[in-house]
Design goal:
Number of domains: 3
Bound molecules: iron/sulfur cluster
CATH class of the largest domain: Alpha Beta
Mean pLDDT: 86
Structural class: alpha+beta
Radius of gyration: 25 Å
Length: about 350
């Protein structure tokens, strides 16, 4: 087997980040630009610690008050905008912990293990992680469980397409030598456990293939930006789709190409060009000489500023590469609106291929 260039172990977060947007992966894991701290991460981590303690000591030895004290003692203060926001999150966390204690102590079934660390290999790729909880089901199979403290409700379809649980299934089967029969998300805010059956052998093979493909692309240095639901991520100042936006302007990191004609256009000038171009397209004159002139200006501007998108208020034009029926490629512009990316190159990461 050829030696792999990716020496550091893969993890679910790395794999998810690459699948979502390869450029975001590069910023986070190759360039190691620190992510902005997020309140919801601190919130989730603090609740996880209280739940872990509950399971480790058992409900008989952990009262709700003790859980709350632990939550207070180990509260993660990172990422909150101001003390009022932090208080709001803390109130919600305390409520979750109180409800969790009340629900779990009614008919407690201790998990087989909590916070289960794993190291496995997927086709020679080291892969590490930690499973929130693994339980034994009545039929002798295992259940892998993940606690979620987010607000969005969870459906069975979400669980069945959840890649993280698919990876946990493979890790638990290897670590405990038993089949997983159920994958579950415990949605703490709604106090609901939502389950889906285990991945089939075919599903696991598809997931392995997807991980291997991602690692090959990383090793080959393939980091194209991909618009996704995470946009803008933590790196808008560096991203060619976002660094032209008002609040990120002036942060250009250099140029992609050298042989372009400098426009010398200010951002205000190019905004006017964008508005004119959009009006032409709307009036059905997308093929006119003027449209071509405006496109040439926008293209030069994009190259000059190393951006793939020009923002004009809430309107955007995105540079896209399109294919002629002959197979020849050319660049054009797609008009869009912030948040609604119709016509632009939105590529949503799909997990349907491997579940
Ligand atoms: S803003 Fe979007 S396209 Fe740009 S790096 Fe982040 S995820 Fe990728």
């Amino acid at each position: 087997m050829p030696e792999r260039k990716v020496k550091r172990p893969m993890s679910y977060s790395k794999f998810w980040t690459y699948s979502d947007c390869p450029l975001q992966y590069k910023f986070a894991y190759v360039d190691k630009i620190p992510e902005a701290p997020r309140p919801e991460y601190s919130f989730g981590r603090s609740i996880h610690r209280a739940i872990e303690q509950f399971h480790r000591r058992g409900p008989g030895k952990t009262t709700a008050e003790e859980m709350l004290r632990l939550l207070d003692r180990s509260w993660d203060t990172e990422g909150f905008l101001n003390p009022e926001v932090e208080r709001k999150f803390k109130r919600a966390a305390r409520e979750i912990v109180r409800q969790f204690h009340a629900d779990e102590t009614k008919a407690y079934r201790p998990p087989l293990a909590v916070e289960v660390k794993f190291d496995m290999e997927i086709d020679g790729i080291p892969f590490t992680g930690r499973i929130d909880a693994v339980s034994k089901l009545e039929d002798g199979t295992l259940e892998v469980l993940d606690y979620k403290s987010s607000e969005e409700p969870i459906t069975e379809d979400d669980v069945s397409k959840n890649v993280q649980l698919g990876i946990y299934q493979m890790a638990a089967e290897e670590k405990f030598g038993q089949k997983v029969g159920r994958r579950t998300i415990y949605h703490l805010r709604s106090r609901k456990k939502v389950s889906a059956p285990a991945l089939t052998d075919e599903g696991k093979a598809g997931l392995r293939r997807a991980i291997v493909t991602a690692v090959r692309c990383i090793e080959a240095g393939e980091f194209p930006p991909r618009l996704s639901e995470s946009c803008p991520c933590d790196y808008p100042n560096y991203c060619p789709y976002f660094k032209d936006k008002d609040e990120h302007r002036g942060q250009s990191q250099g140029h992609l190409v050298d042989d372009y004609e400098r426009t010398g256009l200010s951002h205000k000038d190019i905004e006017d060009v964008v508005v004119q171009y959009a009006a032409l397209l709307e009036g059905g004159k997308g093929n006119s000489l003027l449209a071509s002139e405006l496109e040439a200006k926008m293209l030069s501007y994009c190259q000059e500023h190393d951006v793939l998108r020009i923002w004009a208020g809430e309107m955007t034009v995105t540079l896209v590469r399109a294919l002629e029926p002959s197979g020849e490629s050319y660049v054009t512009f797609a008009i869009g609106k912030a948040g609604k990316e119709e016509g632009a190159t939105v590529v949503k990461a799909s997990q349907d291929d491997y579940v």
